[in-house]
Amino acid sequence: QLQLVESGGGLVQPGGSLRLSCAVSGFTLDGYAIGWFRHAPGKEREGVSCIRSSARGKNYADSVYADSVKGRYTISRDNAKNTVYLQMNGLKPLDTGVYYCARKWDCATSLILGSWGQGTQVTVSS
Description:
By secondary structure, this protein is mainly beta. The chain has strands at 3-7, 10-12, 18-25, 33-39, 46-51, 63-65, 73-78, 83-88, 97-104, 120-124. It has a six-stranded mixed sheet, with no helix packed on it. Strands 1-3-8-7 form a four-stranded antiparallel sheet, with no helix packed on it. It is globular.
């Protein structure tokens, strides 16, 4: 019943922008942290960003980012729409990969809850 569906990927030129969406169902979004992960060609899947649960108070950072995306990515959530977004600006070829979202208890743990979604392909190329 738990479901996370990624969308919004595509082919963009270097310097372009994309807005990824993670639509969730089967659980209350505001009770969990949501992380975005990237699986780049020839590399292991890695976390690129995470947003904390709005119900967890001040014990966790509002959001975290991998060093490679700081200043270019912005993660946000809309609990009313059961959706988490990843705004990606100033895209570079290194951003290429399949992007996944996953549920977590908090952003401090690497453990995800449930299964990986289908992912959405992001390709940055001229």
